[in-house]
Each structure stands twice: as C-alpha cells, then as structure tokens.
Design goal:
The chain is an alpha+beta fold and 63 residues long. The chain is 52% helix and 21% strand.
C-alpha cells in the first residue's frame, strides 16, 4: 500500500513486516517507472533479473 502526503513524500508499507517508510515522491516515481518498464519489456522474471533491468533502465536514462 502506498499513501501520498502533502509534503511530496510517499509512505510505503512493507506487506511482510508492516514497517512503513517515507520516501521522496520523485524517487518513488523514478523507481516505479523503471520497474514498470522492465516488467512490460521482460514479462515474468526473477528478482535478480528485475534489479538488472532497473539498472539498465537507469543507465539508458543516464539517471
């Protein structure tokens, strides 16, 4: 679950531990876009392949 707050922070909830973490909305959007792009491109993949795909996305975007 993700909650947006007024201070342009995103609260992320870890479904396993129930822990909450606030991160900058810009960073959240960047990672969300990279993950979505990788999954659309590759389909069903492992966590390691997802990490590699996100790294490739950032390298191509020069981020």
């Amino acid at each position: 679950m993700t909650t947006f707050t007024e201070s342009s922070k995103v609260e992320c909830l870890n479904p396993n531990s129930g822990g909450r973490m606030n991160i900058d909305k810009g960073i959240y959007d960047l990672f969300s876009k990279a993950i979505s792009h990788t999954l659309k491109k590759e389909g069903a993949i492992t966590y390691t392949q997802l990490v590699e795909g996100v790294q490739d996305f950032f390298q191509k975007q020069k981020t």
